[in-house]
Design brief:
Layout (H helix, E strand, L loop, with lengths): L2 E3 L5 E5 L1 H5 L12 E2 L2 E2 L6 H6 L1 H17 L4 H13 L3 E5 L5 H5 L4 E3 L2 E8 L16 E2 L19 E5 L9 H10 L2 E5 L11 H4 L5 E6 L11 E4 L2 H4 L4 E3 L1
Parallel strand pairs: 1-13, 2-5, 2-10, 5-6, 10-11, 11-12
Antiparallel strand pairs: 3-4, 7-8, 7-9
Length: 244
């Protein structure tokens, strides 16, 4: 099967954890929702941060170590190559927090769940009201594994991962909705269709949009797609596109 892309097409791509998993990065689902005996809610929620910031940072420090060792796979490279051909007619939204898309060459993308190699002040949040810190997120590859080792912002707040935790609002939603509204082809790659709002994107697209899913198993929202390509993304994507 080949997906034809005409000169007038605009392509919106959503990638999920399955793409990173093909580079050897573990996912919450793969671990049964546990990390060293801890539930996901104990390492990836605002409540977890308030209860034990050091535990949260140990988890994200581990994820930083793993991501630094991982390499982009053929799926990352295929999407970067498609972007190179389409230019501004291509947009990538990823649920993944690693930097493998960027390392493969992708540039027109947003990380709706944040970025692993960025940090921010715990008070830098739309919901922080008058106490909000004005310092923006910043590049950070440091490992923080003890309470005393957690860096501090100039305002005195602790530095936290620039990650959207469960219960927080995904990033760049206005931009994402704009790109969905003007796309003519939607590709959803390596995501289960179980995490919202990303699972809704395929239904937000207009009726004229051709919608394709690529992954080894059918997603929970399979009925919303024009076609399903049940294969690993790294196997399917390199030869999938016919750009006119």
């Amino acid at each position: 099967m080949a997906i034809s892309i005409a000169p007038t097409d605009r392509v919106f791509v959503l990638t999920g954890a399955g793409v990173s998993a093909e580079s050897g990065l573990r996912t919450f689902r793969d671990q049964g929702g546990l990390w060293e005996g801890h539930r996901v809610e104990e390492v990836a929620t605002p409540e977890a941060w308030a209860e034990d910031a050091a535990r949260v940072w140990r988890f994200y420090s581990m994820r930083r170590r793993d991501a630094l060792l991982a390499q982009p796979n053929p799926a990352h490279h295929a999407l970067a190559a498609l972007e190179a051909r389409l230019g501004d007619r291509f947009f990538l939204c990823t649920q993944n927090v690693d930097d493998l898309h960027e390392r493969a060459g992708s540039r027109r993308l947003v990380h709706m769940h944040g970025q692993l190699f960025q940090s921010r002040c715990e008070f830098h949040s739309p919901g922080a009201g008058a106490c909000a810190c004005s310092q923006p997120p910043f590049a950070d590859t440091a490992l923080y594994e003890t309470e005393t080792g957690i860096a501090r912002c100039s305002c005195g707040g602790r530095i936290r991962p620039h990650i959207v935790w469960f219960g927080e609002v995904p990033l760049d939603m206005d931009r994402i909705q704009q790109e969905i509204a003007r796309c003519t082809v939607m590709l959803v790659v390596g995501t289960s269709g179980a995490v919202y709002p990303a699972a809704s994107f395929v239904r937000w697209a207009g009726p004229q949009v051709r919608r394709y899913y690529i992954g080894p198993e059918a997603p929970m929202n399979a009925s919303a797609f024009t076609g399903l390509i049940l294969a690993n993304a790294g196997e399917a994507l390199p030869d999938l596109f016919k750009v006119e």
